[in-house]
């Protein structure tokens, strides 16, 4: 779920979190709209002769470019309706050296609220400032504002097990050590693919699979986990050993959809998929649930962004030699029909995906 980085964007705590010039954050809505509402709002024109500026800094964390959405509700106060189209304010999102990463002009035309939004792409993690500046006749009558939000998706911060304890996936760097079924191993490459909400709406195959906490059995995963459809999870139960003569096999997350607590996540919004590559295909742990590291094949290379694929091929031609001898898989990967019949039998036998401790 996205995080709102703005403090007191509802003005319920007056001017807390806000700085600037000529702030007017101490009135209830009814003072401007005569509607009896005790909701707290701010006005983007405190006094005549002073230009109202409202600012708030916030910090954005993450890896590479980070996408977000800015929202604000605004309406003209009754007394400003004569200046519709002139009274309003500008919104700017500034980086730490004052460069703009996003701006828009808000000029409400009625005394009922509209939500004004803009997408913001932060080029990197850091401190940014939201600045709103009064526009129009400087007459102490202006646009009123409420529900200011800077929503950023931190990609759920999926926790990956490492020898130092669980770490959010976006904080991992090449060379860091993660826990695998075969012990600690260094990350060789990290890929990241962001899927924007409109792309998901157009291609439902980009929706993630949501695995609710505990849905795999044995309390796993320990928190809700979202993975791409083709990402494989380790299945480890009696049905697996009966069918395959192995303690565990890897099954694509999409095959698990329909089991209690495992659904296709069709909520709108951006999602971000991470690929963690080690020297070998390994079982790693996401929210403590056993899952696979990035498996390098022609198909998986094709699923990467162009930049990601090029980087991987350039940096690690050895990892990417799909013509060379077959690489060892972390566990047997049954063909698709066998995965389907495994899940059917597991349901019939009432076996959890991870029935025995991983
Ligand atoms: Ca409010
Ligand atoms: Ca003013
Ligand atoms: Ca004004």
Structural write-up:
Helix content is 14%, strand content 35%. It has seven helices and 24 strands. The protein is elongated and about 80 Å long. It has helices at 30-33, 197-202, 238-244, 253-256, 298-302, 306-315, 336-349; strands at residues 3-4, 19-21, 27-28, 40-43, 53-60, 66-76, 88-94, 100-106, 114-122, 126-135, 143-152, 159-160, 167-168, 177-180, 183-186, 189-195, 209-211, 225-227, 232-235, 249-252, 262-264, 271-277, 283-286, 289-292. The strands form eight sheets. Strands 1, 3, 4, 6, 9 and 11 form a six-stranded antiparallel beta sheet that branches. Strands 2-5-10-7-8 form a five-stranded antiparallel beta sheet, with no helix packed on it. It has 358 residues and is α+β, with helices and mostly antiparallel strands. Strand 14 and strand 15 (183-186) form a beta hairpin. The model has no long low-confidence stretch (mean pLDDT 90). Bound molecules: calcium ion (3 copies). One calcium ion binds at residues 45, 87, 136-139, 141-142.
């Amino acid at each position: 779920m996205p995080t709102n980085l703005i403090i007191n964007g509802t003005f319920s705590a007056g001017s807390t979190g806000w700085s600037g010039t000529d702030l007017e954050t101490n009135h209830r809505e009814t003072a401007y709209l005569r509607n009896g509402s005790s909701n707290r709002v701010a006005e983007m024109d405190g006094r005549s002769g002073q230009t109202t500026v409202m600012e708030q800094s916030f910090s954005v964390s993450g890896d590479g470019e980070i996408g977000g959405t800015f929202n604000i509700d605004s309406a003209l106060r009754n007394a400003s309706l004569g200046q519709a189209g002139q009274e309003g304010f500008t919104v700017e999102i500034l980086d730490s050296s004052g460069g703009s990463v996003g701006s828009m002009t808000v000029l409400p035309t009625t005394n009922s609220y509209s939500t004004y939004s803009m997408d913001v792409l932060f080029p990197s993690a850091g401190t940014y400032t939201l600045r709103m500046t009064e526009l129009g006749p400087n007459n102490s009558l202006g646009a009123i504002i409420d529900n200011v939000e800077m929503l950023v998706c931190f990609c759920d911060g999926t926790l990956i097990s490492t020898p130092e304890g669980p770490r959010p996936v976006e904080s991992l760097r090449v060379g860091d050590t993660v826990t695998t079924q075969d012990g600690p191993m260094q990350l060789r490459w990290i890929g990241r693919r962001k899927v924007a909400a409109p792309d998901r709406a157009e291609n439902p195959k980009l929706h993630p699979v949501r695995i609710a906490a505990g849905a795999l059995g044995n309390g796993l995963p320990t928190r809700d986990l979202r993975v791409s459809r083709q990402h494989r999870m380790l299945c480890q139960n009696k049905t697996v050993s009966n069918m395959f003569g192995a303690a565990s096999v890897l099954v694509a997350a999409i095959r698990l959809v329909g089991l209690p607590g495992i659904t296709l996540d069709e909520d709108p919004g951006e999602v971000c998929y991470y690929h963690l590559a080690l020297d070998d295909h390994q079982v790693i742990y996401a929210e403590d649930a056993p899952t696979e590291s990035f498996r390098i094949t022609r198909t998986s290379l094709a699923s990467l962004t162009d930049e990601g694929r090029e980087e991987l091929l350039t940096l690690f031609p050895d990892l990417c030699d799909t013509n060379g001898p077959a690489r060892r898989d972390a566990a047997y990967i049954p063909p698709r029909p066998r995965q389907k019949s495994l899940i059917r039998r597991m349901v019939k036998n009432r076996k959890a995906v991870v029935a025995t401790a991983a």
